[in-house]
Write a structure and sequence with these properties.
alpha/beta; Rossmann fold; Dihydrodipicolinate Reductase, domain 2; 2 domains; six-stranded parallel sheet; about 35% helix; binds nicotinamide-adenine-dinucleotide
Length: about 400
């Protein structure tokens, strides 16, 4: 209990107090906890760096080493690490094999671009170490099936980076809709994402469907994971329309034109009859995402909103209307500032806590390879539907692959 109190102080309060002037032996409440696990980060771009910072913030793990195929990324991250954590040693590996097989590392975080996940995983699983693999777990159906088979017999933790489920608004929605069953039987689920275009990336892999799997796989697997979670069923049919109407229309690299969707509508019907709709638009001057769930006894609407306008916009909102069945709720679910600002509105922090729980052998609701599989299957089906104009039946899509 005492240890937990100290850990909490470290995360929530230490950034607000000056402890620099104290001698090591005078640190107690704000002493850095001794980490239980050492992680190696493979791929040190945007999300690799977020995992480094969140690992160090959360405190049960530490960063042991890093590997990246780009010298620039590796040197930048090494410098950033020593600047932010001057007392911490850091190994910099020369090869993927070394990074995967160092006996001093307890777990591997795979944070490389989508198209490389399978190749890196094939090397990483030889180590038998616990693996955290970023989303989307793969970009192609045959790889999704191969990875699902690998994970079935894998002797250690294998977690996928679908952390939106831990954002405060979705955590609240899951508690009300799934645990408390406050809406009664769920019938319809809708998600909207309106946001800025895809960010710049190392080698701009996210501008090309060949490397990212396409927008509906790359970005939207997060939302399809939420559909799958709330529907508690498997997808039956997927129909989608979309286009590249505004973003990156003139973007070329090595003579190749960008070919990714920047807006789409996707409908998913589940085996249990639940109907879902997803609207994506990536040429909006904001980050806005909204979930609506309609059940037989009520409705939830929850959103996150960052719109860059003057004044303080409400960042999170949750409302549940339950008529005369039970109390309704209106709230702004949030985490402490340090956690919320550490990445993806605190989602990444909580997926780290849950990864630690998995390593410790506690039962969790983390995203498994099975969850990663279904989130990617819906994305691949949606990309296919946009191209063909046809409804995609999931059993036909998967026929012959399982
Ligand atoms: N969970 C989330 O919310 C979230 C957010 C952002 C990115 N991601 C995912 O994380 C992954 C990385 O995205 P990013 O935004 O950090 O991209 P990025 O381009 O910023 O960084 C990727 C890094 O991987 C390196 N790399 C490429 N191939 C490699 C290989 N074979 N071995 C080692 N290093 C290699 C690159 O040099 C680069 O430094 C993608 O799969 C992306 O979809 C997830």
């Amino acid at each position: 209990m005492e240890t937990e109190k100290k850990e909490l102080n470290q995360v929530l309060f230490k950034p607000f107090f000056n402890t620099e002037y104290l001698r090591e032996e005078d640190l107690y409440l704000y002493d850095t906890p001794v980490p239980d696990y050492r992680f190696n980060i493979i791929g040190t771009g945007l999300i690799g760096q977020e995992h480094i910072q969140v690992t160090m913030l959360e405190g049960h793990g530490t960063i042991h080493g890093i590997f990246d195929s780009s010298r620039h990324s590796l040197e930048y991250t090494e410098e950033m690490f020593h600047r932010n954590y001057p007392k911490q040693p850091l190994k910099v590996y020369e090869s993927l094999t070394e990074a995967c097989n160092d006996p001093e590392a307890d777990a591997l975080f795979i944070c490389t671009p989508n198209y490389s996940h399978m190749e890196v995983v094939r090397e990483a699983v030889k180590s038998g170490k616990p693996i955290f693999l970023e989303k989307p777990m793969v970009t192609k159906l045959e790889d999704a099936v191969e990875l699902r088979n690998i994970a079935k017999d894998y002797p250690a933790v294998f977690q996928v980076g679908l952390q939106y489920r831990y954002k405060a608004i979705y955590t609240e929605a899951r508690r009300e809709a799934l645990e408390h069953r406050s809406l009664g039987q769920i019938r319809n689920i809708s998600i909207v994402e309106n946001r800025l275009p895809f960010l710049d990336k190392v080698d701009q892999w996210n501008k090309f469907s060949e490397y990212s799997g396409g927008t509906l796989v790359e970005k939207c697997c997060h939302y399809f994971d939420l559909f799958n979670l709330f529907a508690q069923s498997t997808p039956k049919t997927v129909y989608a329309v979309g286009g590249q109407d505004v973003n990156f229309k003139k973007f070329e690299r090595n003579g190749k034109k960008s070919d990714i969707l920047d807006n789409a509508y996707v409908t998913v019907v589940y085996e249990n009859g639940i109907r879902c709709s997803f609207h994506l638009c990536m040429f909006c001057p904001m980050f806005y995402e909204e979930l609506t769930i309609c059940g037989e006894q009520g409705r939830i609407r929850a959103y996150e909103n960052e719109n860059f306008l003057p004044g303080a916009p409400e960042h999170t909102h949750f409302e549940m209307h339950c008529a005369d069945h039970r109390p309704s709720i209106i709230s702004s679910p949030c985490y402490p500032v340090t956690i919320q600002q550490s990445g993806h509105m605190g989602g990444t922090y909580f997926e780290h806590k849950i990864f630690i729980d998995n390593l410790d052998g506690r039962k969790t609701d983390s995203a498994t390879v099975e969850d990663g599989f279904w989130s990617v299957v819906v994305g691949i089906a949606a990309e296919q539907s946009v191209k063909t104009g046809q409804v995609v039946e999931i059993d036909k899509l998967l026929a012959g692959t399982l």
